[in-house]
Design a protein that fits this description.
Layout: E1 8-10, E2 14-18, H1 24-33, H2 35-42, H3 51-61, E3 65-72, E4 78-86, E5 93-101, H4 110-123, E6 129-135, H5 142-147, E7 151-152, H6 155-160, E8 168-174
Parallel strand pairs: 5-6
Antiparallel strand pairs: 1-2, 2-3, 3-4, 4-5, 6-8, 7-8
Length: 178
């Protein structure tokens, strides 16, 4: 699996910039703007202090794992973040760990655009499918996930990963026109 990551990716309206240690304040500001992401997915009132530092440290320590900030191409304003882990759970799979857009910029297709740009890049680096997962108790998440093109994986996929009783909902979508 290749370990190179992009510095920036550009789409029609966004610039995705890969983050590294030293970018904690920038990512934390996005996390703070997207408090509901933490409420919905982690049942927390918002991001814990140091959440960005923890995310970037984990990315630095884990081959294939990365995070990028989403900025408006015209203004440079940071409006979201996306995080992924290439080669997880298999060499040709990438786990989508986070995709968030600040509330004032939602319902404009920015999440879809950011994900599309990342998918093109991932397909060029050996990813055949993108996966994501959610706790079963977050039943209001699937409409968003389905709208982004993911489909629910059958229980046999959970079992193959040793997750038959983990309470996790697995979703996947092909990338690169697969």
């Amino acid at each position: 699996m290749p370990t190179d990551d992009f510095d920036t990716l550009e789409s029609e309206r966004l610039v995705l910039t890969t983050l590294a240690r030293g970018d904690e304040a920038r990512l934390q500001a996005v996390f703070d703007a997207c408090r509901d992401f933490f409420q919905v997915l982690h049942a927390q009132p918002g991001p814990p202090p140091g959440a960005a530092a923890q995310e970037l440290a984990s990315a630095a320590a884990t081959p294939g794992r990365a995070a990028a900030v989403l900025s408006l191409a015209g203004t440079g304003e940071d409006v979201g973040a996306i995080g992924w882990w290439r080669g997880n759970p298999a060499a040709d799979r990438t786990l989508l760990g986070m995709l968030m857009v600040a509330p004032g910029h939602r319902k404009r297709g920015l999440a879809r655009e950011a994900l599309g740009a990342l998918e093109v890049w991932l397909a060029g680096h050996g990813t055949a499918a993108l996966r994501t997962a959610f706790p079963y108790r977050r039943i209001h998440v699937p409409p968003i996930v389905r709208a982004l093109g993911f489909r629910e994986l059958p229980i046999r996929e959970h079992t193959a990963l040793g997750m038959s009783h983990a309470g996790t909902w697995l979703w996947e979508k092909p990338v690169g026109g697969g």
